[in-house]
Amino acid sequence: MNEVNQKKLLVMALFAGEIMLKNGAETYRVEDTIIRICKSRNFPFVEAYVTPTGIFISVDQEGEDINEMITYVKRIQGRSINLNKVAEVNAFSRRFVEGDLSVEEGMTQLKDIDQLAPYSLLMQALFGGIASAFATLLFGGNYLDFSAALLTSIILTFSIKRIASNGFNLFLTNMTGGFIAAFLSILFSYAHPNIHVDTVIIGAIMVMVPGVAITNAVRDSISGDLVSGLARGAEALLIATSIAFGVGFVLKTWIYITGGRLY
């Protein structure tokens, strides 16, 4: 394989890893995908190191000749959760490794995967609201709490998506989300005496709870990727803290002004 094809393959593997990492994949899965793609085309030396914010890849066609080694670095700026894209890249990597796809065909397929549209905002808000409403029932809420959490979560989802699209950072976005969840829960509690502020808040903020980040932090740590595990754990802690800050600010202000009458 000539040097041009070597570089093209490296870029393709890097792009595959970038898609996975940006959409919620664990770091060990990204590393494994990159290594398998490169080794499928007979590279004797492939090394990949992935963190939540960057990908580092080195390949060497000749093995002993360090002049033939190529290293690429990719900075990952933003991350979200779209496990459909992760699954699609997983399927692509298997096809590429087991088949005879060219690098150009592989890049075309990866670009198509990268352009896959996520679920609509309306669908995310609706089903997120339903999940939050049932979470309210798990914590002892009644049917009024269920309805209040459903509406609060729908409004909350639209709000945080709009805030995030305007360039606000992770802390401010989730803090504002916690603020909105607490504020709407208090309003609903004044609408009917059987609506419980605490139960509605617990249910509503479920759409912001960093479940995937916590899961990946544990899985990365178990797999021995301690840097990535600590980084993802810190990210989850930051999100949880920002949510608590927003909720706590509203509740503290409400208690200070009105005495905090909880129904």
Describe this structure in words.
There is one protein chain. By secondary structure, the protein is mainly alpha-helical. It folds into two domains: 3-114, no CATH class; 121-258, no CATH class. The protein is 67% helix and 8% strand. The protein is built from ten helices and three strands. The chain has helices at residues 3-22, 27-39, 83-98, 103-114, 121-138, 143-165, 170-191, 197-204, 211-222, 226-258, and strands spanning 45-51, 54-60, 69-75. Strands 1-2-3 form a three-stranded antiparallel sheet. Helix 1 (3-22) packs antiparallel against helix 2 (27-39), helix 1 packs parallel to helix 4 (103-114) and helix 5 packs across helix 8 (197-204). It is elongated.
